[in-house]
């Protein structure tokens, strides 16, 4: 639940989601669920020349399992809070 | 043998094997074909593995060394004991 | 109890002891990451900071069948301030050398 809880704190912030098929999408995080499925609004594809078919898409739902990385906004990463949450999670199993 | 009976000591389950090789030199082969040779520190039910003094072999060639390393269980094809490390 | 905290009883303890340390992560697709470990869970989902990603592509020379390895320089290496990494792509995690 750690990352689900963490991603909920990022709602409204801009993130870049990199998929396993190398497509990278920047957008405003609209919502996230327990599987780390993600809905993004106001999206733009990072490499538009390579993926012109996404030009007209404004919002998208990304299945959690196809995500490789999410680039996080530096101002929204509280390192101490993450350490504490991780230690708590590790104890709980 | 009746249900619930003790297995004879010669009949080893995979779990018994895994328990018996902790602290021993092993080769771990991944699905990708890469081999890791080192001392097995511990493992869990997902076949996640912690190893020490690990050497990474790609196509039989030494590519990397790690003091400690964690291998995610889903990548593991097999774990084998070795005579020499 | 401090002793208890520092022992490796299960593989994930190795990761726990690497919190707030620089780690090396080998991923599927010939990708490697080096960065500071800020968070992880039992799936090996992780948040890394000051991350360097290296993508290695191997090309086979059609004439000689020799493997030409293109690594680390230029386009194939980049820095990211903070990165969430999905655990299912992880092959190996190596903590820094401990005494």
UniProtKB/TrEMBL annotation, chain A:
For this chain's UniProt record, which GO biological process terms are given? mRNA splicing, via spliceosome
**Which PROSITE patterns does this one have?**
SM
One cellular component term (GO) for this entry is:
U6 snRNP
User: Which GO molecular-function terms appear in the entry?
Assistant: RNA binding
Keyword field:
mRNA processing, mRNA splicing, Nucleus, Ribonucleoprotein, RNA-binding, Spliceosome
Its principal location?
Answer: nucleus
Q: Where in the cell is it found?
A: Nucleus
Domain of life of the source: Eukaryota
Q: InterPro entries given for it?
A: LSM_dom_sf (IPR010920), Sm (IPR047575), Sm_dom_euk/arc (IPR001163), U6_snRNA_Lsm2 (IPR016654)
Q: Where is the Sm domain?
A: 2-76
Record-linked CDD domains = LSm2 (cd01725)
Entry's family note: Belongs to the snRNP Sm proteins family.
What's its job?
Component of LSM protein complexes, which are involved in RNA processing.
What name does the UniProt record give this protein? Answer: Sm-like protein LSM2
Organism of origin: Chlorella variabilis
TrEMBL record, chain B:
- GO biological process assignments: maturation of SSU-rRNA; mRNA splicing, via spliceosome; tRNA processing
Q: Name one GO molecular function term.
A: RNA binding
Principal location listed in the UniProt entry: cytoplasm
* Full protein name: Sm domain-containing protein
Q: Where in the cell is it found?
A: Cytoplasm; Nucleus
Keywords per UniProt? Cytoplasm, mRNA processing, mRNA splicing, Nucleus, Ribonucleoprotein, RNA-binding, rRNA processing, Spliceosome, tRNA processing
Task: Kindly give the Pfam families that the UniProt entry links to this protein.
Answer: LSM
By its UniProt entry, which Gene3D superfamilies does this protein fall under? 2.30.30.100
Q: Which family does it belong to?
A: Belongs to the snRNP Sm proteins family. SmF/LSm6 subfamily.
CDD domains on file:
LSm6
Q: Does the keyword Nucleotidyltransferase apply?
A: no
Question: What top-level branch of life does the organism fall under?
Answer: Eukaryota
Coiled-coil regions listed in the entry: none
From TrEMBL, chain C:
Alphabetical list of InterPro entries matching this protein: Lsm3, LSM_dom_sf, Sm, Sm-like_LSM3, Sm_dom_euk/arc
Question: What terms describe the molecular function in GO for this protein?
Answer: RNA binding
Q: Which residues form the Sm domain?
A: 10-99
List the transmembrane segments.
none
Which interval of the chain is the signal sequence?
Answer: none
Protein location = Nucleus
How is this protein annotated for GO cellular component? Answer: Lsm2-8 complex; spliceosomal complex
What stretch or stretches form a coiled coil here? none
What does the UniProt keyword field contain?
A: mRNA processing, mRNA splicing, Nucleus, Ribonucleoprotein, RNA-binding, Spliceosome
| Protein name (record) | Sm domain-containing protein
């Amino acid at each position: 639940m750690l990352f689900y809880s963490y991603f909920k704190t990022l709602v409204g912030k801009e993130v870049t989601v990199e998929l396993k098929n190398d497509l990278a999408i920047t957008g405003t995080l609209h919502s996230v669920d327990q599987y780390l499925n993600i809905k993004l609004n106001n999206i733009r594809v990072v490499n538009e020349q390579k993926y012109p078919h996404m030009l007209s898409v404004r919002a998208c739902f990304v299945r959690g399992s196809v995500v490789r990385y999410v680039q996080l906004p530096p101002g929204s990463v509280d390192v101490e809070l993450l350490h504490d949450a991780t230690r708590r999670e590790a104890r709980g199993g | 043998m009746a249900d619930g009976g003790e297995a004879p000591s010669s009949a080893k389950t995979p779990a018994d094997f895994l328990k018996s090789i902790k602290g021993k030199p092993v080769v771990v082969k991944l699905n990708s074909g890469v081999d890791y040779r080192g001392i097995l520190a511990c493992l869990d039910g997902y076949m996640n593995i912690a190893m020490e003094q690990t050497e990474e072999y790609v196509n039989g060639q030494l590519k990397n060394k790690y003091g400690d390393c964690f291998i995610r269980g889903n990548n593991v094809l097999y774990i084998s004991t070795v005579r020499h490390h | 109890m401090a002793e208890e905290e520092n022992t490796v009883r299960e593989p994930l303890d190795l990761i726990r002891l690497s919190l707030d340390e620089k780690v090396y992560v080998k991923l599927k697709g010939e990708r490697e990451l080096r960065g500071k470990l800020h968070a992880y869970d039992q799936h090996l989902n992780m948040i890394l900071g000051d991350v360097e990603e290296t993508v290695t592509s191997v090309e086979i020379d059609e004439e000689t069948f020799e493997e030409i390895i293109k690594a680390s320089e230029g386009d194939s290496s980049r820095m990211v301030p903070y990165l969430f990494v999905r655990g299912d792509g992880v092959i190996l995690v190596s903590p820094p050398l401990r005494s």
